[in-house]
Design a protein that fits this description.
Blueprint lengths: L4 E3 L13 E4 L7 H13 L5 E7 L2 H5 L11 H10 L4 E6 L2 H4 L3 H12 L4 E4 L13 H10 L3 E4 L4 E2 L2 E2 L2 H9 L3 H8 L3 E6 L6 H4 L5 E4 L9 E8 L5 E9 L11 E6 L10 E12 L6 H21 L7
Parallel strand pairs: 1-4, 2-3, 2-5, 3-4, 5-6
Antiparallel strand pairs: 7-8, 9-14, 10-13, 11-12, 11-14, 12-13
Amino acid sequence: MLEVQLFADWRAVPAEARGACVALGNFDGVHRGHRHLISSGHAARPDLPLAVLTFEPHPRELFRPDDPPFHLTLPAARTRFLAENGVSIVYQLTFDAAFSRMSADDFIDQVLVANLDARHLICGPDYAFGHRRGGTAALLSRRAEERGIGLTIVAPLEDDAGPISSSRIRRSLQDGYPERACQMLGRPWEIVGEVAHGDKRGRTIGFPTANIALGRHLEPARGAYAVVVELPDGRQFGGAANIGRRPTVNAGPESRLEVNLFDFAGDLYGVTLRVSLHAFLRAERKFSGIEELQAQIGADCLEARRILDVSPCRFAY
């Protein structure tokens, strides 16, 4: 995997990180369609370093701050996946109110040309940029030609249901179909987070869990899942997880991820885990009491073990 150079300020990019082939977009999820776009950039200019230009925070977070979290990947995971696909430079530009007012022409002239010295650009046909999304792929094509910059507009990658997109993947997860998300991503969807102290209720019923806040991740369908957990040292463990508000124990209004790792013993507090969802087992519901909940968790664990033994996506990272 390449070592990535990461830049947040477009006005402070050193000379050695300029002059690249630059793919444009948000790249949330780094799904198969994104990877198709990136590989098209490399094919167009294999002699140039491969870069991605994206934003943090996502523009939607600035303009619609009250929306629920929607991220498929947080910045660190996005950068990791980009590096795994040959990207050596990530321009993760800070998107704030001042930047949002930059016109499309100024974005081209000041950012892409004057400061990044982009030699070739890659985007999809629906790429929009600049103040009020006034810039289009057609405008970019004209301006790039005028300035002697190459441009490749890449048609979306499609499957039987249409173009692969982050929005389709989000809907699949929210509807309880992580397998569909896996097919579009090219890998299982994962939540990455640090294990925090919970109420330790799982220990009392025989199923100790690692508790992780969803944070800025999309909240998928609430309920139980078969998962695979990767530790920082690369070890992987199957598990059963619950995502939701735990109505049986009146745990409160905030959803979280709780995962029981199979055949694992150790202290995970403060450890950052990668938890990938492989199958939706059942929807969240309120049980009559702890005994019924305990029995259902036992059944969930057995079903998760069965599924993970045959899951084609289990180790597809």
